[in-house]
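INPUT
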Amino acid sequence: MTSTNGKRRARLWFRRGHRWVGLSVVVFVLFLAISGMTLNHASDLGLDRRYVSWSWLLDAYGIQTPDPSASYEDARHRATLLGERLFLDGLDTGQRLSMLTGFVAVDQLVLATAEQGAHLFTASGDLVESIDLQAGLPGPIERLGQVDGRAVIQSNGLLFRSDAEFAGFEPWAISPSKEIRWSAPSPPDAAELTALDAAWRGRGLTVERMVLDLHSGRIFDMPGVLLMDLVALCMIVLGLSGLMLSNSRYRRENGTKSAKRD
Amino acid sequence: MLPRIALLLLLATGPAIAGPGGEAGRYLEADEYLQSVFPADMPEAKTLWVTGDVRDAVERMLEHRFASLRVRYWYDGMRSAWILDEIGKELPITIGVAVADGAIDNVRVLEFRESRGWEVRYPFFTDQFSEARLGSDQRLDRKIDGISGATLSVRAVTRIASIALLLHDQIDDVN
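OUTPUT
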C-alpha cells in the first residue's frame, strides 16, 4: 500500500514538474519557433537587405565608423574612403577599394581612382563604369588631376590623359602652356563626418543578423547563449518526460482494461 | 544498422566537411580571356551606354537594377567579347562571354568569389551555352541544365549570357 502511494506521489510530482517546466519555457519555445521560421525565409522577406538603425544597438554591436583613410573634394563633390568602402557625397557607392588615390569632377561626371583602376560616376552618384587600368599603366596610379576637361593619371612618373568620355587613357606629354590641377586630399568637415557616420553605421547590421543573434541568444553575449542552452535542455527534458508520462498512462490504462477483462 | 547510419551521415555532411573554401578564385585574367577570343589581333575596347529601352530589357533579364550605365566590349567586326559581373548570392561573379553572328561562341567564368557554386566554371556547364541564341521572349533558345547546390550561380551565368547576346545585337545595329 505504502509502495503504491509512493509511486503515485512520484508520478504526481513528475507530472507537476513536466507542467511547470513546460509553462516556464513556453514563451521561449514560441519565440524560437517564430524566429526560426523567420530565419528560414529571411532572404524572401528581404531581411538580409534591411538594416537596423537603432544607435544603441549598433553601439552594443561595437559597429563604429572608422576614420577616413582618404578624402578628396572637387567642385562641391566629396569622395571619402572609409575602410574599403567608397562614399560619394556621404552615400555608399557600393564600390570597394583598398586605396583612394584621387578624385576629380568634370562636367556631370566624377572620377575616383584606386591603385589600379578608376570608378566613374554621374554627379548624382550612379555608377557609370568601373574601369580596370592595370593592363594599360606601367604601375599603380600615383595621383589624379585634370586639364581642359580631361582626367590625367600619373603612373610610374608618366602621364596618361583620358578621352572626353573618360572611356580610356592614353600616354600624354604635357605642353608647357598647360597646367594640371592635381587633386589633393582634404579632411571632411563636421557635417560631412556626421553624414558619413550615419551612412556607415546604417548598413552595418542587417535585420537577419539581429534575428539570428536573438534566436541563438548571442545578442546578450554568453548569458544569452547559456539561457538558450537551458531552454534547449528544458525542451529535451520535456520531450523525454512527455514520452515517459504518455507511456506510463498507456501501460496503466492497458493494465486496467486487462484486469477488467480477467 | 549502425555502419549504414554512419555512412549516411558521412554522405550528408560531406560537403560541410570539405569546408567552405571550395575552389573560389580568379581562374583567368581578363587579358588572357580576350587573347583567347581574339588570338590574331585584339581590337580596341569600346563602350556602350546601357540606357533607355536597352537598360529596361537588361533589367528585366536580371530581375534587378543593372549596376553600371556603361559597359566595355571588344569587337572585331564579327565577334564581340563582354566581361560582365553578376551577383551570385552575395558577391559578384566575373563572366566572359564571346558572341559571334548572334550566337554564343563561348562562356568562361573568370573569377568566382563566393564559397559555393564555383562548379559553374567547369566546361560541362559552360559548354551548354555554345551556339545559344536569344529567342523572341528574350530568353536563351535552349534549356541550361542546373547544378545542384549552385542554383544562384547558374542563374547568374545564364542571365549574363542572355545580356551579352542582347548587347551584341545593339552593337551590331550601331556598326
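end of record. Confidence is low (pLDDT under 50) at residues 5-21 of chain B.
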